[in-house]
Amino acid sequence: MKKLIPIILLLTMLFPFSAVQADEGAQVLDPTALFVPDITGVEFESDATVADAAVAALPNRMPFNADLVDAEISPNTGQGVYVAVLDTGLVSQWPVLFSQANIAADLGKGFTHDLYWDGTVGEIMMGPLREDRGFITGLASGHGTHVTSIITGYNRNNLYWVQGVAPQVTIIPVLVLDAWEVATPSGAVRLSGGSDEMVSAGIYYIADLAETLDGPVVINMSLGGAERSTMIEEAVDYAIGKGVIVVASAGNDGEAGMGYPGGLSQIISAAAGGWSDMFYYYPAGWYTNVPEKLNSKDNMGNNWQIYLEDFSSRPNKYLDQKHQDLDVTTPGAWVVGPYRAAFSNALGYYYVSGTSQAAPHVSAIAALVLQTHPDLQQTEMEAILESAAHGLPLPADDAIVAYPGAPYLCLWDGGDAGAGFLQVPKAITVANIMDK
C-alpha cells in the first residue's frame, strides 16, 4: 500500500452565476462581484436523456472560443474519429448535456484506488489500482464534463445548442482523476487528484482499445503534475506506438515551467490564450462574433485580438525544458461550459480558464485533421499543427485584457506561445499539403 500522490487538475479560475468556488489546486481571482446573467447556475432536476432529435432542433450558438479557432468554417466535423478524454469522467447528468451520438458510454471506463485511514501508521493510505470504477464523476469535479463540452458542444438548458470545435467526434470518457472523503480520527478528509497508476492505466486502456476501433483515436489529457513520471511516459510512448495521437495541457505555472506529461517532448502540448475583447462586450461577450482578422487592433488598444494568459506554462530552461517542448496556443481563458465543484451537486455553467481548456481545442482540431487523414502518426500531426500555428504567431508583446471592474495586463515573450495560435482551416490546409 502507498500514500496518495495527487495529480493536480489544470484548472485556474471559475465563475458561476453568483458565487465563486475553487477546485483543488486552483488559483482563484477576486470575483469583484462578477454577475453573469447569461451563464446561469442550474441544478438539473432530472437525469433524463435528451433525444438527439430534440438536440438537433435547438437553435445554435457559436461561443467566442470556437469562433477564435474558426470552427464555424471547418469543412470537417470529426465524424468517424474518437477522442478519449482522460479526466474526471462525466457527471451523471451527461445525457442532458450532450448528444447521445457523441458519447461512447459502452467504452467508458474508470480507474481509481480505495483510500483509507491506517491507524497503525497514522496516515491515509492507498489501496491497489481498481479498474471497475466506471466513468461517472461521483465526488470529483465536473472538470472532465467541461473539457468534453469544448470538443463536442453542449445543451444549454434546452434553450440552444452551444457549438463545439469538432461536433461529430465520438468521446470515450475515461476517469483517471477521482475524489475521496476519508474518515480519520480527526474527522473526514477530502482529497482530489489521481495517481501515476490511474493515469497510466487510462492511457494503456485507450492504446489497446484503439486497435479494435473503426477510426483514428486522440487522447486528451487536461491534467498534470510538477514531477516527470517514468510510468506515465512509458504509457504515452506505448500509445503513440499504437498510432494514437496524444495531447496534453502545458500547465498553469507560468514562468515556473511546464507540467507533466504536457512537458514531454513527444506530446502535443497546449498553451492557453484568449480574446482580449471578450469582456469588452460583457455580459454577452462569450458568444459575440470574433473578428476574422486576429492581427488587427482591438477595443483595448492592443494591436492583436489574441493574447497569452500569464498563468500559461512556458518552457523553463532551468528544468531542461526546451522551446520546442511547447507546441501551440489555443483558447484557454474564460471558456464557458457545464461544470460543478468537487464534493458538490450544484451543476451549472461556468467561466473556466486554464490550459485544461486549451488542450481540448487542440485535440478537437487534431480530430478534424484525422477525419480526412486518418493514418497520420504523432510526429506528423505535431509537425502539421505547429506549421499551421506558425501562420499566426503571437507578437512578443503584452496585452491589456478587458475584465469587468478593471482590465488586467498579460505579459509574455516570443517563445512562450509555442509555434503560435492554432486555427482549424489552416491545420486542415497544411495537412492536405503535407500528407500527399
3D architecture notes:
This protein has 436 residues and is an alpha/beta fold. The protein has one domain: Rossmann fold (3-Layer(aba) Sandwich). It is built from nine helices and 20 strands. The strands form six sheets. Strands 3, 4, 9, 12, 13, 14, 15 and 16 form an eight-stranded mixed β-sheet that branches. A three-stranded antiparallel β-sheet has the order 1-18-17. A hairpin with a 4-residue loop joins β5 (112-118) and β6 (123-130).
Primary descriptors:
single chain, 436 residues, alpha/beta, Rossmann fold, 8-stranded mixed sheet, 3-stranded antiparallel sheet, globular, disordered N terminus
> Under the CATH scheme, which class?
Alpha Beta
**Low-pLDDT regions:** 1-47
Rg: 20 Å
Q: What fold name stands as the CATH topology?
A: Rossmann fold
For CATH, the homologous superfamily is named as: Peptidase S8/S53 domain
The overall number of domains is 1
Work out the helicity level.
10-25%
Characterize the biggest β-sheet.
Answer: 8 strands, mixed
Overall 3D geometry? globular
